[in-house]
Design the sequence.
């Protein structure tokens, strides 16, 4: 499980990406790369790595559920994900 620092860092980056999205789009259309380079690095969407909402794990991430494969499995076995069940039934 990821530490709370990793989770908080991800949330801050996500907020920065959303905050500067319009500005970055406008600067790219104008092809003003000098001004684009002066923006914060973490405002770039390529610096985001998707993380599990529950554990903070960054690998094996299901976009549909926004959680890692391990948590999908546990929640599915517990019956907490609607419409999902074990394939062996």
Sequence:
């Amino acid at each position: 499980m990821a530490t709370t620092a990793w989770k908080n860092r991800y949330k801050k980056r996500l907020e920065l990406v959303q905050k500067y999205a319009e500005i970055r789009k406008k600067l790219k259309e104008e092809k003003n790369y000098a001004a684009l380079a002066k923006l914060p690095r973490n405002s770039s969407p390529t610096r985001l790595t998707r993380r599990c909402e529950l554990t903070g794990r960054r690998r094996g991430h299901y976009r549909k559920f926004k959680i890692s494969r391990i948590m999908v499995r546990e929640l599915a076995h517990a019956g907490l994900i609607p419409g999902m069940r074990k394939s062996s039934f």
The chain has a mean pLDDT of 90. The first helix runs from residue 4 to 19. The longest strand covers residues 61-62.
